[in-house]
Amino acid sequence: MPTPEPPHNLIAEFLREADTSAVLVQLAVIAGAGGLSWLAATALRTRLRKSAVGAAPFRTGGVNRILFPVMLWAALLAGRWALAPHGSTRLLALVVPLVSSLVIVRIAVYVLRYAFPSGSWLSKSERAVAWTVWIGVVLHLTGILPMVRAWLSEIELPLGKVDVSVLDVIEGTLSAAITIVGALWLGKVVERQLMRLQRVDVSLRVVLAKLLKAVLIGLGLMIALALAGIDLTVLSVFGGALGVGLGFGLQKIAANYVSGFAILLDRSIKLGDLVTIDNRHGEVTRLTARYVVVRSYDGTENIIPNETVITSTVQNHSYSDRQLRVDGTVQIAYDADAELALETLLAAARAHPRVLAEPAPAALVRGFGESGVDLEFFVWVGDPEGGRANLKSDLNLAILRAFREKGIEIPFPQRDVRIIRQPGNVPEGEIL
Questions:
Q1: Pick from 84, 102, 85: which is nearest to 93 by CA?
Q2: Do 331 and 287 belong together in one domain?
Q3: I need a surface site. Which of 95, 291, 354, 355 has the fewest CB within 10 A?
Q4: Are residues 273 and 338 in the same domain?
Q5: Is 237 part of any domain?
């Protein structure tokens, strides 16, 4: 077994530094690097803020918190490289790892927040990453890290016919985690960029985004397995197990994913469509490979599996165009002027800002009811997402106001009661 190298304590080496002038020069380099980095980061941050209108969040969000540490790290490396041939750089040897750890923590937090949705576990994982990085830096500066690595490499775990050291397990796990998270982040970036292509149909954008994201995650998984030292031939065994699982218990999951891609490719449903699926009415706000989100007018979000969309009848109220017809009924008294009432209905409909002029509103006599004449009117709107109930309420109020002004009566239910007297039912002298 090779003898481990003696600890290389950077802190102790700096404290033994006797050349005060060298320390002052390094402090000047650090101060200059900090000032230049702050000016450059401020200028770039201002430029990003000006171009933030319509930009993806990853350009103007977490990047701002990474700019200064990355620029400071690059400036310190350049200063250390320039100063090395002329004097001591032990102070810079301490500062550069500290700044590098800050850069790693900021980048890790940014990638985690962008790749995964927010949740309580995310903040815990960010703290775990920060603690791991800072502990590693402390071990590196004090020279203990090589000793810890040597100790972990000596601890071996039996894995079948092969003994694997704890160091290999830790390094393989970290490499796999970094690769998979990086693939998720890159897939999210590509998806955001594809969804911003306004000239491409929205359904095609969703399909391409999902396919590219799946490919990137698959490549990341294979790279992670290779970095962890796992033979990729085991994927054939996994594929066989997956096939058996699909045959026994995962049919619904597979059917939902296949149905999702079918929906996205045939473009029968698009984002923003007003649909009725399985007695659930609302606007399509999200299309995924597994489900469709339909938001009702009351704010309820219905998560409908893609298989249900494929196998049931879907009423797409905005499939070919976004024009939607809204109907209404009203009753007038028999002695009222029906023609005047029809003209009043049309005038009230045309006065509403949401009602389209073409197709024109229509009003007609529907029939004769028990209490009055039944009238019906039809109007068309071009914004079905604006709702129908509020439009009908506005029209009914306008019609009621106009009827009162013109003296058109809306009848109440009327009944004629006739009492027939039969001999023997009513005693003599009593009046009904």
A1: 84
A2: no
A3: 354
A4: no
A5: no
The encoded tokens of residue 363 equal 């009003």
Task: Please state, in angstroms and rounded to a whole number, the distance separating the CA atoms of residues 271 and 323.
Answer: 16
Asked if 49 contacts 84 with a C-beta cutoff of 8 angstroms, the reply is no
SS3 280: strand
Last residue of a domain, one of 97, 120, 154: 154
CA distance 58 to 220: 21
Taking only the tens of pLDDT, the chain with its 432 residues reads: 444 455 566 666 666 665 677 778 888 888 888 888 888 888 887 777 776 544 444 444 566 677 888 888 888 888 888 887 777 777 777 888 888 888 888 888 777 777 776 665 666 777 777 788 878 877 777 777 778 778 877 877 776 666 677 777 777 777 777 887 887 788 777 777 777 776 666 666 766 777 777 777 777 777 776 766 666 565 565 566 666 655 555 666 777 777 777 777 777 787 778 888 888 888 888 887 788 888 887 778 888 888 888 888 888 877 777 787 888 889 999 888 889 999 999 998 899 888 888 888 999 998 888 888 999 998 988 877 777 788 888 899 999 999 999 888 888 876 777 777 766 555 555 544
pTM across the whole model: 0.49
- Give first-to-last CA distance, the chain, whole Å: 121
Instruction: Tell me which residue of 329, 394, 383 sits closest to 356, measured CA to CA.
Output: 383
Q: What is the CATH number of the domain that holds 331?
A: 3.30.70.100
**Cβ contact 217:176 at 8 Å:** no
As given in the structure block, the two tokens for residue 323 are 């024009």
Same domain as 119, residue 35? yes
14 within a domain of the structure (yes/no): yes
Is residue 259 domain-resident?
no
Burial grade of 273 (CB within 10 A; 0-12, 13-18, 19 or more): buried
| Shared domain check, 397 and 297 | no
Which residue range forms the structural domain that includes residue 100? 10-154
Instruction: Tell me: do 293 and 402 sit in the same domain.
Output: no
